[in-house]
Specification:
61% helix; mainly alpha
């Protein structure tokens, strides 16, 4: 039976994500300065649909002030002509040194603050805790009033909660802050708009 087989595959994958989340948490506990591991633990817990655990990790990241901003390291693969992302500057530099890659480039990676708060809020919404969701957004926006990502995340939470008028107001505010922001169906939104 195909449905039974698909269910078995799903359960196996879910267990693997749960194990990965636990492993990332252990790595973080061994090296608390490497908060990226806690971020990965939260992300994989969400993928495993373990929202209780992911909420705990995301709230810890928020409380630590983690934003995830940093650099990503790229170089062009000489054989394919494609630009590729490397796990670290050291690995990228070694690949360039050995002549396999050219044109190294460092790109600033965006902050993950808005994503973290949005995920906290969405987990609260899925748990039926709308007030906690809105409180998480208010706190984040108070700390980062000019963060367009947070503004749009709050709009998405409002939409998910069915508050179309508040969604519309927030999206109008977003377009005031960034007139180039392209919006689809602001007057009658059909799905959340996520910006990463």
């Amino acid at each position: 039976d195909r449905s039974s087989a698909a269910s078995d595959v799903y359960k196996r994958q879910n267990k693997e994500y749960m194990k990965s989340s636990a492993d990332f948490e252990k790595a973080y506990k061994m090296s608390p300065k490497d908060t990226i591991y806690l971020y990965y633990a939260a992300s994989t817990a969400v993928t495993a649909q373990d929202y209780k655990t992911s909420l705990k990790f995301y709230e810890e990241l928020r409380d630590l002030g983690y934003n995830g901003a940093g650099y990503e390291y790229y170089a062009v693969n000489k054989a394919t002509g494609e630009e590729e992302l490397f796990d670290s500057k050291l690995l990228r530099d070694e690949a360039v040194k050995y002549g396999e890659y050219i044109a190294p480039k460092d790109k600033k990676s965006p902050s993950k603050s808005a994503e973290i708060v949005k995920n906290i809020a969405l987990i609260h919404v899925s748990n039926g805790d709308d007030e906690k969701a809105l409180a998480a957004m208010r706190l984040a926006r108070d700390k980062n009033p000019d963060d367009l990502g947070l503004l749009i995340s709050e709009a998405n939470v409002q939409l998910k909660m069915g508050n179309k008028e508040r969604f519309r107001e927030l999206m109008e505010e977003a377009t005031t802050k960034d007139p180039d922001l392209s919006l689809i169906h602001i007057s009658e939104p059909t799905r959340p708009l996520y910006i990463s």
